[in-house]
Predict the 3D structure of the following.
Amino acid sequence: MALALTSTGSRVNIESMNIGTVAERSGVPPKSIRYYESIGLITPAERRPNGYRSYSAHDMQTLAFIKRARSLGFSVEEVRDLLDLWRNRSRKSAAVKAMAAQHIEALDRKIAELQSMRRALAELVRRCRGDSRPECPILKDLEEGNK
């Protein structure tokens, strides 16, 4: 039986952790863990005789992988593809690199869109007097739409 210390200093069997322990150690909330199980992103946990889920160190590693990929902005489906590549030991790194490069392109498009939105809003803020009068170019623009 392999033991590890939790952040609170208590010992835990890392070969069989409950959902609270694996959530704490992986940084993934229990609700997300259950969701990832329901959509097949992770294999459903074994059940203990008392009905509680039982997770392994490998499950925790997979959850940490998912958390990091999500923090980089990958969608759930992209994470699924990354997990498939991660699990496939005969993969070519070119496939992983291509996927990451496509994600960078999507992020660049999103950044450009956000910068454009920021410029438009900054111009509206610049034109608004922000005084006690009711006239407001910000509200006028929203009312008229992008004519």
